[in-house]
Design a protein that fits this description.
Layout (H helix, E strand, L loop, with lengths): L3 E4 L8 H7 L6 E5 L1 H4 L7 E4 L20 H10 L5 E4 L3 H12 L9 E7 L5 E5 L9 H18 L6 E5 L10 H11 L4 E6 L1 H4 L6 E3 L2 H26 L3 H9 L1 H11 L1 H4 L1 E5 L5 E4 L5 H16 L2 H11 L5
Parallel strand pairs: 1-2, 1-4, 2-3, 4-11, 6-9, 7-8, 7-9
Antiparallel strand pairs: 5-6, 5-10, 10-11
Length: 323
């Protein structure tokens, strides 16, 4: 497989964390960024010079005017066939703008969506999209997300008939905002195993395999889950530290606690695939550490190996999508 192009300058901890994550992949990563900052960190990895960076507080549209920004140079490596995929921990909006311009959208897609897999209380996993690529969505775009998410669940989770739910504040048809109520009949018309509106509690307890929402709701939901995990771990540590005999018991639970942390931490999932562009582009959290970058690179490679983009393209071609 061709190397994965890594935007080594993107993210709060770049380039230290990005390079450290890349070094876990035995030379199968192409670093994109300022050579002067990367040479001393990664002498064994190939580097493509990119002397500009889209900062987190820049407008996403600035990527259109900065061809030498690292995210644009990384996307070009993919478009030209030098790389098999792109990973960035930088500005997610800029990544989407660069990917749409450099790779194009799949037929039938108005707006790409960020998608990832989250753990459930029943031991399974659920596909969640959109996670922030589109803060405001039209109902028709939510229908597109449903088709793409269902295809993703088939390939990545190996499910034959994934259940698709529309995130709402209740399972009753009368609940939900204007957007949810307008999207509901559109999803019902699709040839999917649609289970209807679904609230977050049910979503995380196995009521659906794919959960569809707009990017604002999805991003807040995911960050709330991450914060809840951190709070839970912190409270457990404080409570265990209160009594000597509890600390003794915690030693016997160390392996279980470690597995819990590995399953629920943001680093374990690495990044979200930008679903709907004609190529594999993975966007990781801005504060990604070495482990998260490592995981994001692994996600990108698996998406290439499983031909996720091809599967989604075929699903879109078969679907009768609302215009």
């Amino acid at each position: 497989m061709r190397p994965v192009a890594l935007d080594a300058m993107g993210g709060d901890n770049a380039p230290g964390a990005t390079v450290a994550g890349a070094l876990q992949h035995d030379g199968s990563v192409l670093l994109i960024g300022r050579r002067a900052e990367l040479d001393d960190l990664a002498s064994d990895l190939s580097i493509v010079e990119a002397d500009d960076v889209v900062a987190m507080d820049d407008k996403a549209s600035s990527a259109l005017r900065r061809p030498d920004a690292s995210i644009n140079v990384a996307i070009r490596q993919l478009a030209e066939g030098t790389a098999s995929a792109v990973v960035t921990c930088g500005h997610s909006g800029a990544a989407m703008v660069a990917a749409i311009k450099g790779l194009g959208r799949l037929e039938g897609v108005d707006r790409p969506a960020l998608v990832t897999v989250v753990p459930r209380a029943d031991g399974g996993e659920t596909v969640l999209l959109d996670l922030g690529a589109n803060v405001d969505c039209r109902p028709e775009q939510l229908a597109q997300f449903a088709v793409m998410g269902e295809a993703y669940a088939r390939v990545v989770l190996g499910l034959d008939d994934p259940r698709v739910g529309l995130l709402s504040n209740g399972a009753e048809r009368g609940k939900g905002n204007t957007q949810v109520k307008a999207a509901l009949p559109l999803l019902e018309q699709l040839a999917l195993n649609f289970v209807g509106p679904i609230e977050p509690f049910e979503a995380f307890h196995g009521a659906a395999d794919v959960v569809v929402c707009d990017g604002f709701v999805g991003n807040v939901m995911l960050k709330t889950v991450e914060a809840t995990v951190d709070v839970t771990v912190s409270l457990m540590q404080k409570e265990i530290g209160r009594m000597p005999h509890w600390r003794l018991g915690a030693r016997f639970m160390k392996s279980a606690l470690r597995r819990f942390r590995s399953r629920t931490s943001a680093s374990a999932y690495g990044g979200a695939l930008l679903l709907g562009v004609d190529g594999v582009v993975v966007v990781a959290h801005g504060r990604s550490d070495r482990g998260a970058v490592d995981s994001a690179l692994s996600v990108a490679r698996r998406c290439v190996e499983q031909d996720v983009v091809g599967a989604v393209s075929k699903a879109l071609a078969k679907a009768t999508l609302p215009s």
